[in-house]
Specification:
136 residues, 5 helices, 0% strand, extended
Length: 136
């Protein structure tokens, strides 16, 4: 038996849009999907090669939520060089997507809200921890 408040969780609307787009494409319908924000082209070979090299160096673990310091620093250099904009690495957020990126600035508040809302289930109820409520 699950806690009653878990019944209020809804499936991801982003994933539902992606599934519908796949379904329509399978029927031969030309679809432009704005669901997951994925590019409509393959990853460039130089990026694939860099990813393989990073894995060979052992860079296979989770990173900081806001991006690794070296990458955030490189973004600052690029913005200064190409755009004349001066930022510090602490001002830069590098995430896996808009959903994660938009949640990261308020992750402490989100985490606190999750802890208070989900910590005390009904007696003998099964418990689930929603994604995004974990420690970062």
């Amino acid at each position: 038996m699950l806690a009653d408040r878990l019944k209020t969780l809804a499936p991801s609307s982003t994933l539902a849009v992606q599934a519908k787009a796949r379904e329509l494409r399978a029927k031969g319908i030309d679809v432009i999907s704005f669901g997951a924000g994925e590019p409509d082209f393959d990853t460039p070979q130089r990026i694939k090669d860099a990813a393989v090299e990073a894995m060979r160096r052992g860079q296979t673990k989770y990173t900081e939520v806001g991006g690794i310091p070296e990458l955030r620093g490189a973004v600052c250099v690029k913005l200064k060089r190409d755009n004349g904009l001066a930022y510090e690495p602490a001002d830069v957020l590098v995430s896996v997507g808009a959903r994660t990126g938009s949640r990261t600035p308020s992750r402490r508040a989100w985490s606190a809200a999750c802890r208070s809302r989900w910590r005390r289930p009904r007696p003998r109820a099964s418990t689930s921890i929603p994604s995004g409520c974990g420690r970062r």
